Amino acid sequence: MRIQIRNFSKLSCLLIGVLFGFNSLTGQSFQETLSKGQIRGNFQFDAQYYQEDTLIGAQDVPEKILSNGFLNLVYTNGNFSTGVRYESYLNALLGFPPGYQGSGITYRFASYTQDKLSITVGNFYEQFGNGLIFRTYEERGLGYDNVMDGVRLKYDLAKGVKLTGVIGKQRLFFEYGDGIVRGLDVDITLNDLFSKYSESKTRVIVGFSGISKYQQDLNSQLVLPENVGSFAGRININRGYFNFNGEYAYKYNDPSADNGFIYKPGEAIFLQTSYSRKGFGLVLAAKRNDNMSFRSDRTAGQQDLLINFIPALTKQHTYNLLATLYPYATQLNGEIAFQADLIYKFKKGTLLGGKRGMDILLNIATANNLDTTQLNDDATSRQGYESKYFSLGEVFFKDFNVQLNKKFSKKVTGRFTYANLVYNQDVIEGKPGAPIIYADVGIADVTYKFAQKKSLRTEAQVLLTKQDQGDWVTLLLEYSYAPHWFFAFLDQYNFGNPDPNLRVHYYNASMGYVDGGNRISLSYGRQRAGIFCVGGVCRVVPASNGLYLSVTSSF
Fold first, then answer.
1. Is 65 helix (H, G, I), strand (E, B) or coil?
2. What is the pLDDT of residue 536?
3. Taking the CB of residue 168, how many other CB atoms lie within 10 A of it?
4. Euclidean distance between CA atoms 8 and 3, whole angstroms
């Protein structure tokens, strides 16, 4: 929802003026200027009171209370927009990178469009193609933000031809990395460029990208390239129910801490095709990436200063036993992955559809190492290894899952899931010698609607495995009184742990209130240690016990 500035108080207008630099405008002229535009924004505050719990490994927190908070404000007036984001970590919640400490303005920008040219100075997010050589974005739940600080230009060169140029540095917590990132992207819609194909049912879009980074060589033992370039080409074809998306990327030699400072070039290919019509959908995808870690600082690690993004071809599960116990993290140094998604709707009146129909969702995902051979090359060439392009190495991850969605009556709906997982702890979590995990997961999610505004959702999950911590079970009861209230109770129990002393219940009770764009939730209980992932990017979440408060608002 957007709110006219004229409806804000004088104090709000003064704050906006200070943040956006309108210090030359005072009194009536300032408010008249702002009243011509609009402001929108959002706020979030998360805080937790921690208690030590030796049984689950929850550590003692000296501050007792940790918190994350931010406020976004964006002002728009015609073709002009500007904005800021204020962030506060006092201190950051457990599991977030330690670099998030303190408070300050971490994002500010000004943007203007005139005719065919758009200019942005300050901070901006951008992506070229599928992100194989360049993607900057924010994922607040992971503590991930590699936003650029610099200049971005967008220009419509001709009908169907768009150019994007960027230059800047990347955010590193409350500072910026040393490396400078420069890039150019060309996006061409062939149907618009060539008028004789403008009415064609087949739409074709091609694109070309180039990214380079500069970082000074201060290494006394190796000669490191100070300028590293990469390029990519892509194509998207759409006709009726069919779509194809493909991209190839190449990166020149980029010795770094990720690859052991070898001089081997990197490359990646991403292919995806889909067919969709009413009641049926099929998506097939494949990718291969080899030595494609690309950072603006060659010595950085974890998720710091990544220039590119290699998507994980795995389903993004939402149920906690699937989402936090054994999720997959993209292996930047090399992997081959495949995924297939099938969606089919059994019509009403059929044998399987019954009176109200039924949906089935089938997903298969695999990820393997490259088939590599180590090279005994000298210190000058330092190629490290060679790989066979179409040959698979050891298994990293497998996920076969099927989900059935069924409405049994006007009051009862159900969602039932089965998943079979293969999970390589050694590679994904960096646990040398740990066994590969084989697990079966079953989930029943049933909602009963008492009345128009009242419903009860029951969720039962079980994970069975002979490896790692053994078997788990989860039970969730969630009562909703729309449109404002919800109450929930969850118990996660590690009943199959090989150590009887660690067969622990993880209780958690929560409640929340929603009013328009405002949401307040409060919970108390235990949080199991695990891994939280979004799109193949992950962070470790330590065990905790205590009271958790979350407040969000958007306007």
1. strand
2. 77
3. 23
4. 8
Helix (H, G, I), strand (E, B) or coil at 324: coil
Coil, strand or helix: which one is 29? helix
Place of tokens 């610099």: 150
Q: How far apart are CA 510 and CA 372, in angstroms?
A: 49
How far is Cα 459 from Cα 49, in angstroms, rounded to an integer?
27
pLDDT of residue 150: 97
pTM of the model: 0.89
Is the separation of the CB atoms in 189 and 205 below 8 Å? yes
The model's pLDDT over 173-208, given as tens digits with 9 standing for 90+, comes to: 999 999 999 999 999 999 999 988 888 999 999 999
Question: Token digits for 222?
Answer: 């190796």
Of the CA atoms within 13 Å of residue 242, those in its CB half-sphere come to: 7
* Residue-range domain boundaries for the chain: 115-271+287-310
Please tell me the distance from the alpha carbon of residue 62 to that of residue 169, in angstroms, as a whole number.
35
- Reported as a single tens digit per residue, the pLDDT across 432-460 is 889 999 999 999 999 999 988 899 999 99
409-431 exposure pattern, b = at least 16 Cβ within 10 A, e = fewer: eeeebbbebebebbbbbebbeee
DSSP state of 210: E
DSSP state of 58: B
d(CA 252, CA 265): 5
Query: Which tokens is 526 given?
Result: 């235990």
Q: How far apart are CA 332 and CA 370, in angstroms?
A: 11
